Amino acid sequence: MSNFKPQLKIVTMAVAVAISALMTGCNDNSSEHAVVKDDAYYKSLAEQMVAQMSISEKLDIVSGPGMDFTTFANNTPINLLSDASGVAGYINGVKNDKLDIPAAKLADGPAGLRINGTRDGDSGTYYATAWPIGSLLASTWNTDLVQQVGKATGEEVKEYGVDLLLAPGMNIQRNPLNGRNFEYYSEDPLVTGKIGAAMVEGVESNGVGSTIKHFFGNNSETNRNYINDIGEPRTFREIYLRGFQIAVDEAQPWAVMTSYNKVNGTYVNQRKDAVTHILRDEWGFNGLVMSDWFAGNVMGDANSAAAQMNAGNDLIEPGGQKTNLQASIDAGSLTEGQVTQNAVHILTQVQKSPSYNHYAFSNNPDLNAHAVLARQAATEGMVLLKNNAALPIANGKTLATFGVNQVNTYKGGTGSGDVHAAYTVSIAKGLANRFTVNSDLQDYYSTYFATNKVEHAGSFGGASTYSCDEATVTNNSDLSTLLTTAVQTNDTAVISIGRQAGEGADRTNAKGDYLLSDQEVDMITSVADAFHAQGKKVVVVLNVNGVIDTSAWGDKADAILLAYMGGQDTGNEVADILSGDVNPSGKLAQTFPGSYADVPSSSSRAFPGVDTNSDGTPDDVYYNEGIYVGYRYYSTFDKTVSYPFGFGLSYTTFGYSDAAVTANTLSKGAQGSVTLTATITNTGSVAGKEAAQVYVSAPEVKLKKPAIELKAFAKTSKLDAGATEKLTFNIPAKILASFDPSSNEWIVEPGTYKAYVSASSNVTDVTPVTFTVDKEIVVSHTTAGALALPEGVDAATVTTITK
User: Fold this and answer.
1) What are the distances in angstroms from CA 92 to CA 349, 484, 522, 736?
2) What is the mean pLDDT of residues 558-577?
């Protein structure tokens, strides 16, 4: 227990009050007199703590202990009671004759807890679960399941002695070439917010913290520390801030991490309008705000740290800024009062942490149970994009497996999204565990990979990864012979295609990345021609970090499974789906466009940006599409896509019926809502789940709107053949609202709204139900002038895609 005495006094007084009530025979429930340990309670104690600190100690709290920029080794934090090897950083503690505040430990990341597997002087191993990547979790459309994943992840955080998890990542998948899309959930802010809130609630149910990131606009990795996002306030509020707002509203995370990038000319962590006025004042965020590591040009500008403090960015990571902060105080550009406020924000959350409360962590979380849950979550998120009677593969059928990715299987991305797992099951191994496979082919690819692989050093402390050009079949006598034999002796061909990406770099619209390489096209063509000539099926498995082109080769495959990166059991999970042991129910949380040229941000000006200082890297990226991101663009402007947002096949079929508006309380104004119901029936012969979605087409009075916007979703339980389930969808006014920049208000415009209860964003054949809003509803007022375009920049030159 902390030696901080005011805390003891408050608890003692509360106990005395409770005893007094009992002794006097009071009929009131004694729980009314118990201490409610909410943020207000912890804030009161934090204020008392900080009041007893010197300015030097306050500066220790707001700036982490620092890090060697060349080795990324952390300096020793103040009052560290125990360490966890491999954590990303710390919050300093305080140790004096009045206060004993232990240091807190912060660890990555988005696909699971990232710690080192081995420790100096320790023969033990300390692995964490490598969970499915964020894109795969979002594709479950199952917030209850994601909350379970969060709860299990939080147990690992707690039992390994860590206090805050630097996750989840909640940036919008604006462009399919963003190298970090795999960490993020969706192109849609509602999915992002709901899935993010579920993860936060799960993690924090263990008494450890989560950190939603990167607030906001970190939608590319190229020159990420300096890139300047230029866009209109409505664009940022409706698309890029909306998911964060939902997560804060529904889950109130312990922490928010600000992003590297600038927005309209100013670093986000130096924007008081974003960090204080929007996040705290408008949304009511109670937690601490921290920087991303070395963000805000702290390496080159001594004033950067003070600018972050003044904006309300409470904690500078990895720190080492105490001298600069003291100099700013001496110069009058930073006040002690601001530092005090920031330190209170930090310590309000630190008091909840396991380190502060001296939790005796076990170093032994239930990894076996978590592996089972990870496998379930991955299979529920994998998306069956195509199935021409090829899947599931019946028991007793034999497989011919092609592609080097079956051996070089990716469990997750690189950088902070990497996890030191105890094992990774390759696709080759997973299929062999479930089916009779062609061992000669698997031996060929194992040898080919071992001979031709190229090692890439791990980025940002992650493990090394490997790449390997695909083996061609044409003019390759060994592989051609194996193919000739396989088509005679095996029932089905399974081709694996892999893509890796990670922190610090974006992808390219090139062969071998967004496009298939010539070797991959040769492999798919050769295998498909041979197997189809014998009347046999070809299945393609995509073990990828994000969207790749499917239009150029998709017709050659009988089935396409989007497996994404399923974590440590990826191979077994693929086998679960292909065999039918699990009926796929995943649906896309990002659109697969017809071609990269169809992406609204595909121009170089929009992604990765414009080089304004001729140094060879982009400096300004224009959010040219405004609010028309992803399916909002494709549906509004009638663009053909390969696979629409929300789409996913099953081994059964589902019918939608009886869609209705059952309640409309929007006449109550900002507190009102509209409720819909619909009945989902399993009309096929296999038990399965269905993710139903509600898209709303809103009237245009003052504001232009996308043709449709997702406003609610729900997933059925597992329905047996012929079974039905009635789903309920509630859409509050605040979710229905649009941002009106002319009045700085979130409003619901009057008129008739169409609501489509649909299996995907393709609502062409769906009959809508309607509801009416009689008069304009002002949901909330916002900060005037927040996030304004830079002076002299015309909105018409920024937002070039308009209705």
Assistant:
1) 13, 64, 56, 42
2) 98
Residue 269 has φ and ψ, to the nearest 5°, of: -75, 0
What integer pLDDT is reported at residue 32 of this predicted model? 56
Q: What is residue 33's predicted lDDT score, i.e. its pLDDT?
A: 67
Give residue 567's pLDDT band: very low, low, confident or very high (50, 70, 90).
very high
Residue 610: phi, psi to the nearest 5? Answer: -105, 135
- What mean pLDDT comes out for the span 634-662? 98
> Band of the pLDDT at 22, cuts 50, 70, 90?
very low
Report H helices in 513-594: 518-533, 570-579
Task: Tally DSSP H helices, then E strands, for the chain.
Answer: 21, 32
Nearest residue to 260 via CA among 288, 287, 229, 303 = 229
The domain over range 382-582 is classified in CATH as 3.40.50.1700: yes
Q: What is the 3-state secondary structure (H, E, C) of 203-227?
A: HHCCCCEEEEEEECCCCCCCCCCCC
| Tally of CB atoms within 10 A around 453 | 16
Residues 428 and 401 sit within 8 Å (Cβ to Cβ): yes
The CATH number for 650-789, chosen from 2.60.40.10, 2.130.10.10, 3.10.20.340, 2.60.120.260, is: 2.60.40.10
The yes-or-no verdict on residue 30 having pLDDT over 70 is no
Tens of pLDDT along 166-193?
A: 999 999 999 999 999 999 999 999 999 9
pLDDT tens digits, one per residue of 107-118: 999 999 999 988
Q: Which residue has the higher pLDDT, 450 or 119?
A: 450
pLDDT higher than 80, residue 46: yes
Measured in residues, the chain has a length of: 803
Q: Which of 452, 329, 364, 411 is nearest to 63 (CA)?
A: 329
Res 27: pLDDT: 45
Three-class DSSP category at 31: helix
Q: Is residue 172 a contact partner of residue 451, using CB atoms and an 8 Å limit?
A: no
Q: In whole angstroms, give the CA distance from residue 631 to residue 628.
A: 8
In the block, residue with structure tokens 């709290």: 61
- Supply angle C-alpha 797, 231, 317, rounded to 5: 145
φ and ψ at residue 68, rounded to 5 degrees: -70, 115
Q: Which residues contact 487 (CB under 8 A, 6 or more apart)?
A: 400, 493, 530, 531, 533, 534, 536
Write down the pTM of the prediction: 0.95
Residue 632: HSE in the Cβ half-sphere, 13 Å Cα cutoff? 28
Instruction: Write the single-letter amino acid at 6.
Output: P
**Cα–Cα distance between 748 and 767 in angstroms, integer?**
23
Domain segments of the chain as ranges: 54-350, 382-582, 650-789
In which band, very low, low, confident or very high, does the pLDDT at 119 lie, cut at 50, 70 and 90?
Answer: confident
Maximum CA extent, the chain: 94
The one-character DSSP state at 193 is H
- Percentage above 90 pLDDT, the chain: 90
Given the structure tokens 């969970």, which residue do they identify? Answer: 131
- How many angstroms from the chain centroid is the CA of residue 407? 27
Where is average pLDDT lowest: 235-239, 466-470, 652-656?
466-470
CATH of 54-350, one of 3.40.47.10, 3.20.20.300, 3.40.50.10420, 3.30.420.40: 3.20.20.300
Three-state SS annotation for 453-490: CEEECCCCCCCCEEECCCCCCCCCHHHHHHHHHHHHHC
* Peptide bond connecting 370 to the previous residue in cis, omega within 30 degrees of 0: no
For residue 114 the two structure tokens come to 């990232």
Mean pLDDT of the chain, nearest integer: 94
Asked whether residue 768 carries a pLDDT value surpassing 60, the answer given is yes
pLDDT of 1 > 50? The answer is: no
Distance separating alpha carbons of residues 280 and 372, to the nearest angstrom = 39
What single-letter amino acid sits at 512? Answer: G
Question: How many whole angstroms separate alpha carbon 498 and alpha carbon 481?
Answer: 24
